[in-house]
Every structure is written in structure tokens, then in C-alpha cells.
Amino acid sequence: MARAYQEFFSGYAEDPVAVLSRTFTEVEGYDEMVLLRNIRIESHCEHHIVPIIGRAHVAYLPDHRVVGISKLARVVELYAKRLQIQEKMTAQIAEAIYTVLKPRGVGVVIEADHACMTTRGVHQPGVGMVTRRLLGCFREDPVRREFLSMVGS
Predict the structure, then answer these.
(1) SS3 of residue 34 by DSSP
(2) Which CATH number among 3.10.50.40, 3.30.1130.10, 3.40.720.10, 3.40.50.880 corresponds to the domain 2-150?
(3) How many other C-beta atoms can be found within 10 angstroms of the C-beta atom of residue 122?
(4) Stated pTM of the model
């Protein structure tokens, strides 16, 4: 059982800055949105210690450098592998990308089901929660609309 908990909460042992610091500057002037959709989230509610299962969609608008897409998925996983609430996790992912990469903007949308809603308390299966964090130019209408239409939110 101890090994399972080490895996569930392995995100505390990793640094998001280190994950995102390896970037590529040879991008041939690429300045359009980079979007990674449907990153699986497996987390645990910090209040009830039950699973939160869902998907994250992460996008950014580069400014002179890009990061390997596996690094975006890794940062999502790093924050998911901690005791969480979805709102905080969404903000942490967006802030880390925005702070380290210094892009023109970042968008994060997380859609998840919470076992605390389905297995206890109100017993509401099929209820999903959607959170989003938009930073920089992603807060502006045209970019926000494009991003949200691409992730279906």
C-alpha cells in the first residue's frame, strides 16, 4: 500500500520549473498557439482523499521559445499527483507555464469527475466539473474564443 501512495502523491518530489526549463529557441518564427488536449488527470481530493479523474487541455502562445509537449503533460501530471482541489490545480499549471516560459499567454481547462460527489455525500454520478485559467493574451476575446472553441468549452 505504501508504494501506491508514493505513486499517487509523487508530484511533491518534482519541481515544475525544472520540468519546463528545457526549451527550444530554434522555432523558425513560430508564433501561433500550441495546444495539447486530453491530458489524463489522476488526482486526489485534498478534503476527502478520493480520486479526481479527468482531462486537461493546455495551450500557450509562444514568445521566442517553445517547450517539448511531453513537458506540458509532465507539469500537468506533477500537479495532479498531489492532494488537490481542481481550482487550485488549474491555476498552478497555468501559473507555472506562464512564469517559466514567459509566453504571450496561457490557457488551461480541466474537466474532471470527483469521487467525493459520486461515492459519498450527495451521491451524484455523472456530474463533471470544469475549471479554467486564462493568462496574458488568452484573457482577450479573440484568443480566448479560439482556445475555448478548440477544447470544446
Answers:
(1) strand
(2) 3.30.1130.10
(3) 8
(4) 0.91
Q: Which of 48, 64, 95, 146 is catalytic?
A: 48
pLDDT of the residue at 73:
97
Residue ranges per structural domain of the chain: 2-150
Alpha-carbon gap, residue 29 to 37, rounded angstroms? 23
Per-residue pLDDT tens over the stretch 46-100: 888 899 999 999 999 998 889 999 999 999 999 999 999 999 999 999 999 999 9
List the grid coordinates of 21: 526549463
Active site residue 123: no
Kindly name the residue from 86, 92, 111, 137 that is annotated as catalytic.
Answer: 86
CA distances from 14 to 4, 11, 20, 121 (A): 17, 6, 11, 33
Q: Which residue has the higher pLDDT, 55 or 2?
A: 55
Whether 44 is a known active-site residue: answer no
Given 6, 46, 87, 140, which residue is catalytic? 46
Stated as kind and residue range, the H or E segment containing 66 is: strand 66-67
For helices 69-80 and 86-101, the axis angle rounded to 10 degrees is 140
